[in-house]
Amino acid sequence: MTLRSRLGAGLVAIAIILVRPRGFAIQSLNGLHEDAKSLRDREFAALFTLGRLREGLNLLRREELALLFNKTQAARDTVDRELAIVGAMADTLSRFQLPRYAQDIRLAVIQIALAAPAEYKAALAGDTAQADAMSAKVFVPALNRADSTAIFAERELRDRTSQVVSNQSTRIGRITKGSIIALVLALLLAAAIAIWLTRSISAPILDLRSGMSAVADGDLTYKLSIPSDRSDEFGTLADSFKEMTRQLGELDKLKAEFVSVASHELKTPINVMIGYLQLLEEGIYGPLTQKQLEVHKTLVVQANTLLRLVKQLLDVSRFEAGGGRLEPRAVDLDHFLAELDNAFHVLAVQRDITFAVERRGDLPGEVYWDLDRINEVLGNLLSNAFKFTPRGGRVELGIEPVDGSIHMEVHDTGAGIPPEQLPRIFDKFYQADNQRAAHVTGTGLGLAIAKQIVEAHGGTISCDSTVGVGTTFSITLPTRVARRSSLQRVVTAGA
Asked: What does pTM read for this prediction?
């Protein structure tokens, strides 16, 4: 699935998930609306009808009394009209699921209707006693029975309405709770999908960014965690990154081979130049004037600098190719440190810098190292320390045993190295921004060679620095190093 398809599917899924609780709420609200409509059209209408029925019964009672007192034809017609209205309302009750009450009220109305003509006749004839007797015996009991039935029906209807309202309240609570739960679940599921989408996109991007940073720092062996056979755009990018690092590795190898060959080829003509300069100095080709001697001195310095640079390039190339030969032998550690102290004492006096070699712990009397190579490493580190330390500063070489190895620290109170540049100080030709604080500039190869030599001895080298405070180089070496030929070095590197 491509990145665009994945994003589209994820967004559609999130939209569906978020719409579902809304649909559930709308459906539930529609159900509540239907129930409320049913309550209005049935229970409330029934209560209204019962109220009007009771009013009609009371009005019928008043009109019947008016007939007994007035004894007129108009009063009789009014009673008949009210009686018909009450009968119609009694028939209406059967539509509101109150059939028993409607039947009882209807029977009472029929009984009144059957007895009414005789009562009318007696009342209009002036037979008050007969009319009153019929009213007391039939009309009034029937009216009372109908009114009582209406009261019972009204009470039952109220109870039923209360139950319906209570049920609806419970249902509303359940719907509210269900809606909240559905919304929370939808949000959690949408958040999970969003997190999955974010991680599926951000993780490869972060991996690619780390890979590009590693390549920018010179690490061409960085492997992406993104499989190159992925079917989306990240798979294409991973495959392109892999091809890019392969081509850069080949270019770096070609560059190293070119530097090695060029350095080797330059060494011969430089040696010839230096040889002829020595012959000139010895007067083989005649005496030199004072001006010629000054030019000769400058040429000698520059030729030796060029020769040193070529040797450094050859050393780096040999170690990178696995051909850096070590010649370890027994080294008197105390004598070695004393020579270092003497060698840099004069430089410390000239630069007005305090220099000290500090021995800590129970140091072994003898170690088995390539003396020339280790002397080159420490000489380079101490030279850099003096180069970047101002007058009145301090340079220290500390040495102590640690877990069967020898730990050495070269510390200075110089300019320091910016923290963002520390990871690259051991790269070839790399020079930190603190070069302006140095008395002389370098080539950027010394630390690269030092790292190669230390690692060839099976040791480690690291650097800790604070700008404006100072720098500390730490070296850890085993006390004994096995002799390695160029062939053994290659095999060991492969293993």
From this structure: 0.44
